[in-house]
Task: inverse folding
């Protein structure tokens, strides 16, 4: 995880205070009705409050203390649920606030058609306008660089303080409103209207304003509502049953039982779980465009991993010099370094670095006598001509260099060609180095697999996710890297079309596919994939096509995203199980208490040995309320998740939340009963 | 409990399972449209029937049409039988000149038989002509076939991918009758005939018995009814006392055979499901869940009955089993059948929702009574024709949904995603079941017309009403005989609970099939939790017990459990 400039802790004092305030605001039935389970609790609280007031006015003090305490705890139940939601929202709101601060009114330098500049407010910019930004300017809105190159500070969005290079053309041309130009001058074509900028979207996303219930959340809600309905039926039938035995159960007790039975624990925490799931992504500097995308991430069956950047560091590096045709390693290193002096590619630099190990450093070259031959796709070589010494040094694709030597009437041994072939077979890239008519040998370039990636891929396999490496390399190179990284499959010589075809093929088998991408040509595949993570460094097209954006532009993060998605679902499932399992103990607390005056011989059912019917019922209600508060941290943090097979995860969670859910309330209710009795609350 | 008793029970159950294996293969062939050894005889008859109905058996329909046709065909048959019973005095085979039965009783009876319930608020031998009895036998075939084909449609919903059509109702319905129920019914009717069950059009015979007393003997086409009544898990006997009447159940062998008839097809349907979906391990796991529940129930009933009433022991009655004394609780049981076989019969008839009885369930020990009620509340211990499997799968969907979330994926069942729609329909079926039992039960407790039917005061009376509504909603049809059901209140209210208890869950369940059939199937991976094995068994079992217990705990606590504790305390009710 990288630096987090605007990530805010959940339990800060400010958030706590505003969450408490919000908990009361949310008592408004118009808000509560969106959560049917808690709405039932609220109605129950209103009923018992009415009974309390009635008793008060009619001077019916027989059980008024009991009614009062039940009422208070029922209200607490609703408040605790509201608090859970508020606190999870609070963190998002605080994050949104800190984002908003970066969005102070900016002046834009609008470039008019006649080439003149005009200063206007950034909020007046429209799609298609052209603006100029120079050192020190804040980029006024999202756009694309159409001219120039600049280093940009994007810390306002990414939290990453190191500047990034943005330039016109290609996949690094997108700039985001609110970021700052550190050097140079760029001309930007604005690509979004006011209020639709990335930073606006981000604010509304972290704030949860555009939050919609996810498919699983909807399904779970239905289950909870139906369970509530069933328990309503159960409780309604109790009164006639008591009547059959010529008894009467007070409505307060019926309400108390109903509230204890309906799944209040999960009902109270459900939205907090969802919000904090999104939040955990933000913590990882990933912005999900919808909760649905987070959930889909948990379901992913196939991960398409770009070789470059995800599996390997992305650039091939020289790992050894293999001299041939009579040269020795020092000579080869010497000429290899000379040939790479002007080569600014990472490969070129790695050759220079490797040669330094052979003592070639601090070279002095007379610039007058040197001619640099740049790389071209046609010659597939680069190099230098040392005019004073009449030396033509070349480095490049083996065939091309062989041809060069032969043109100079030289000869190349079979051994050199064989060495090159072997390197290719192992997935490396051979570069030949020659001077005039002499072949000097081969530089072994290798794609270096990131440390730890194999373990990650193994753990993905454990949770049933297939990894497919995507690379533009030839099949040989691809296979070598694939073997080294331990991916399940690979696609070599991939084009955006093959990527798309692969996604569709996997999807047609019912699988969900996740991928990362940054280029414009990745956009269709990003849109097609079930989880498309666009890199923040990528183009606007890519960012719009994906359903998540990684602000750190770190493709490896896909793996974390999947884990967060899973953790979200696991947390929901586990707390649902816990909530339902709790009911067993509550029945054993309340039913004997309820019928103790009517059917005294049912007393053996009071297996917890609770001291009186009233204390039994009150203890159950109190337990039901405080378990919500106790579980808030778990809801926010998520249930512990370690990659493992479905069976072992399920076994673990069933034991903790299922069996635990049955046992814990027996203990909890008993303890509360002891305390209540000790304090003479009843 | 005795060794011979346990042995009788285990041998009967083992025989059923052994017979269910080949039967399940045969049934899978039948409903997959593959060749079977009976094709030579049945194919011509079947195509003739379809031709007569002007139905192209190969033309499949979507779930809505399948369901619609099924229900319309049901209602059509319901109307016919209603009229036959109502006007039996104008119809043949009524030598005793029984009048047409009252509209309320007719309403109750016709609904009861079309829905495979066979709740009987009448005494067959004293109210119905032989023609009426045979009309009911007709429904005993069709109602069993109806439940079965809806289960087949559900299975196809799981098997087929990105499809629309679940099958042709007529073709499946006729297959179920021609290829399963009719052949078996004929075989077992002959066996019953051999064992002494009457099969005649004579309605009554006057005889002088051994003690010289003149006696009327009621008879009719009994053997044919007994075979399908049990094979179709209908349960409505020819006689008021069902299998407690020796003409329906002459000896311990027919008693065991009756249990065999009830249970073999429901067990085979579980296994057929495994074959059809291509996952036998999964089906065997569900079999294990149902079998465990059956064995536990059986163990409770048998031990309770064998142990007898401790209160009687205190009064000096010898309730210990010995050579000359069966011991235990013999009230309402037949001497020649004994406690072990009676316990097996009672447990089986409520598990397989047959409803046929060979003893007075009303006289069982309180906890035995509770088990019998609980079996019908669950309604998935193999259950009735097709519906037991449907109820089990509904519960599995809920179990898989919760457990699936716990492994961190959108829950999936056999590769199909369980989403809002499936959860909605499954929980609706569950809710309907609870609602239709508990609310009418509560109403009956609250109104004088309901309380009037009770025979016994105290918690047992509550159990009697609870038993009645549970039995009707579960389409079982057996009764805690104490309750007088032939009143306007009970005829109508039980008729309605039977009706809604049958069709609402079925509609929900076939709709689930309609939703599942459209879905892609996701290949299984290490990330999906396997739908077989011990873990799956635990998850399904826990869900069944938890949902069942949470829904019905209070009612059971106040009925049988309260009665049990009262008995221990020696508390009597007058």
Result:
């Amino acid at each position: 995880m990288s630096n987090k400039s605007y990530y805010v802790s959940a339990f800060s004092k400010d958030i706590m205070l505003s969450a408490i305030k919000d908990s009361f605001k949310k008592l408004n039935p118009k808000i509560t009705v969106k959560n049917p389970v808690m709405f039932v609790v609220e109605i129950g609280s209103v009923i018992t409050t009415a009974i309390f007031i009635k008793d008060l006015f009619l001077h019916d003090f027989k059980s008024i203390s009991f009614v009062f305490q039940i009422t208070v705890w029922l209200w607490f139940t609703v408040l605790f649920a509201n608090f859970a939601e508020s606190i999870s929202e609070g963190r998002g709101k605080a994050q949104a606030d800190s984002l908003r601060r970066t969005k102070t009114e900016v002046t834009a330098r609008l470039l008019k058609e006649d080439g003149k500049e005009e200063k206007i407010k950034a909020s007046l910019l429209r799609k298609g306008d052209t603006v100029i930004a120079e050192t020190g300017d804040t980029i006024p809105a999202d756009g694309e660089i159409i001219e120039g190159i600049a280093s940009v500070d994007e810390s306002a969005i990414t939290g990453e303080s190191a500047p990034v290079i943005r330039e016109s053309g290609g996949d690094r041309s997108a700039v985001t409103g609110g970021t700052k130009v550190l050097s140079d001058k760029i001309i930007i074509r604005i690509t979004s209207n006011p209020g639709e900028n990335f930073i606006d979207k981000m604010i509304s996303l972290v704030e949860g304003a555009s939050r919609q219930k996810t498919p699983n959340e909807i399904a779970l809600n239905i289950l909870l509502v139906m369970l509530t309905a069933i328990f309503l039926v159960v409780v309604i039938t109790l009164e006639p049953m008591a009547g059959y035995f010529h008894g009467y159960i007070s409505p307060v007790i019926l309400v108390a039982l109903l509230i204890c039975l309906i799944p209040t624990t999960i009902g109270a925490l459900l939205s907090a779980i969802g919000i904090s799931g999104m939040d955990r992504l933000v913590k990882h500097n990933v912005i999900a465009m919808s909760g649905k995308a987070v959930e889909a991430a948990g379901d992913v069956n196939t991960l398409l991993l770009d070789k470059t950047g995800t599996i390997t560091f992305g650039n091939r590096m020289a790992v050894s010099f293999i001299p041939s045709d009579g040269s020795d390693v020092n000579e080869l290193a010497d000429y290899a370094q000379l040939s790479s002096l002007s080569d600014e590619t990472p490969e070129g630099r790695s050759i220079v670095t490797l040669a330094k190990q052979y003592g070639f450093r601090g070279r002095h070259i007379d610039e007058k006598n040197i001619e640099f031959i740049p790389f071209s796709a046609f010659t597939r070589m680069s190099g230098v001509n040392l005019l004073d010494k009449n030396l033509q040094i070349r480095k490049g694709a083996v065939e091309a260099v062989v041809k060069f030597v032969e043109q100079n009437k030289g000869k190349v041994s079979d051994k050199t060609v064989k060495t090159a072939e072997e390197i290719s077979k192992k997935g490396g890239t051979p570069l030949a180095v020659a001077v005039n008519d002499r072949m000097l040998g081969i530089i072994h370039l290798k794609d270096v697999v990131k440390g730890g990636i194999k373990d990650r891929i193994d753990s993905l396999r454990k949770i049933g996710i297939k990894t497919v490496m995507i690379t533009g390399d030839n099949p040989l190179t691809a296979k070598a890297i694939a073997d080294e990284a331990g991916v399940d499959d690979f696609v070599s010589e991939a084009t955006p079309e093959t990527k798309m075809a692969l996604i569709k093929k996997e999807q047609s088998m019912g699988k969900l596919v996740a991928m990362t991408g940054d280029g414009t040509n990745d956009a269709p595949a990003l849109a097609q994939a079930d989880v498309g993570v666009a890199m923040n460094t990528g183009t606007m097209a890519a960012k719009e096509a994906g359903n998540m954006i990684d602000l750190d532009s770190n493709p490896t993060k896909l793996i974390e995203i999947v884990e967060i998605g899973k953790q979200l679902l696991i947390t929901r499932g586990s707390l649902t199980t816990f909530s339902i399992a709790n009911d067993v103990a509550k029945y054993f607390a309340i039913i004997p208490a309820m019928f103790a005056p009517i059917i005294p011989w049912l007393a053996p059912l009071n297996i917890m040995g609770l001291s009186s019917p009233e204390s039994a019922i009150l203890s159950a209600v109190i337990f039901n309320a405080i378990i919500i508060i106790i579980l808030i941290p778990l809801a926010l943090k998520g249930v512990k998740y370690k990659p493992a097979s479905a069976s072992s995860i399920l076994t673990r969670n069933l034991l903790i939340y299922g069996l635990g859910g049955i046992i814990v309330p027996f203990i909890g209710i008993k303890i509360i009963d002891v305390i209540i009795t000790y304090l003479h609350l009843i | 409990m005795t060794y011979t008793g346990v042995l009788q029970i285990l041998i009967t159950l083992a025989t059923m399972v052994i017979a269910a294996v080949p039967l399940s293969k045969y049934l899978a062939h039948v409903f997959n449209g593959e060749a079977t050894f009976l094709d030579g005889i049945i194919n011509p008859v079947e195509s003739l029937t379809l031709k007569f109905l002007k139905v192209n058996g190969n033309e499949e329909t979507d779930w809505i049409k399948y369901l619609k046709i099924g229900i319309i065909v049901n209602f059509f048959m319901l109307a016919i039988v209603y009229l036959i019973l109502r006007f039996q005095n104008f119809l043949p085979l009524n030598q005793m000149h029984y009048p047409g039965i009252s509209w309320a009783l007719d309403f109750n009876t016709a609904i009861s038989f079309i829905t495979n319930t066979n709740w009987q608020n009448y005494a067959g031998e004293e109210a119905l002509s032989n023609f009426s009895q045979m009309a009911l036998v007709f429904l005993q075939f069709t109602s069993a076939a109806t439940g079965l084909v809806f289960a087949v449609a559900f299975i196809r919903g799981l098997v087929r991918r990105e499809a629309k059509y679940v099958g042709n109702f007529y073709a499946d319905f006729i297959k179920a009758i021609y290829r399963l129920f009719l052949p078996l019914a004929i075989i077992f009717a002959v066996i019953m005939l051999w064992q002494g069950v009457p099969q005649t059009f004579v309605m009554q015979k006057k005889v002088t018995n051994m003690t010289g007393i003149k006696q009327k003997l009621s008879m009719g086409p009994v053997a044919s009814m007994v075979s399908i009544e049990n094979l179709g898990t209908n349960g409505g006997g020819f006689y008021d006392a069902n299998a407690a009447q020796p003409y329906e159940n002459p000896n311990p062998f027919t008693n065991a055979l009756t249990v065999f008839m009830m249970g073999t097809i429901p067990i085979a349907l579980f296994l057929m499901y495994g074959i059809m979906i291509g996952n036998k391990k999964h089906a065997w796991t569900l079999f294990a869940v149902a079998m465990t529940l059956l064995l536990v129930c059986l163990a409770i009933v048998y031990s309770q009955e064998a142990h007898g009433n401790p209160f009687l022991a205190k009064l000096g009655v010898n309730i210990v089993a010995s050579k000359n004394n069966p011991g235990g609780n013999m009230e309402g049981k037949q001497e020649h059948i004994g406690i072990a076989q009676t316990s097996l019969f009672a447990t089986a008839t409520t598990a397989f929702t047959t409803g046929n009885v060979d003893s007075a369930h009303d006289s069982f020990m309180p906890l035995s009574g509770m088990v019998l009620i609980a079996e019908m509340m669950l309604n998935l211990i193999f259950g009735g024709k097709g519906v037991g499997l449907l109820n089990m799968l509904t519960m599995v969907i809920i179990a898989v949904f919760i457990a699936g979330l716990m492994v961190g994926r959108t829950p999936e069942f056999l590769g199909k995603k369980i989403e809002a729609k499936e959860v909605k329909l499954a929980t609706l079926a569950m809710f309907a079941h609870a609602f239709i039992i508990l609310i009418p039960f509560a109403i009956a407790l609250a109104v004088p017309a309901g309380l009037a039917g009770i025979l016994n005061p105290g918690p047992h009376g509550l159990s009697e009403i609870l038993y009645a509504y549970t039995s009707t909603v579960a389409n079982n049809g057996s009764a805690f005989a104490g309750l007088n059901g032939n009143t306007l209140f009970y005829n109508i209210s039980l008729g309605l609970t039977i009706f809604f208890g049958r069709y609402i869950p079925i509609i929900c369940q076939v709709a689930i099939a309609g939703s599942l059939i459209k879905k892609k199937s996701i290949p299984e991976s290490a990330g999906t939790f396997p739908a077989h094995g011990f873990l799956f068994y635990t998850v399904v079992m826990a869900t069944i017990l938890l949902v069942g217990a949470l829904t019905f705990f209070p009612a059971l606590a106040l009925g049988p459990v309260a009665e049990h504790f009262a008995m221990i305390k020696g508390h009597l009710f007058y």
Q: What stands out?
A: The longest helix of chain B spans residues 533-569. Chain B touches chain A through 66 residues (CB under 8 Å). Chain B has a mean pLDDT of 93.
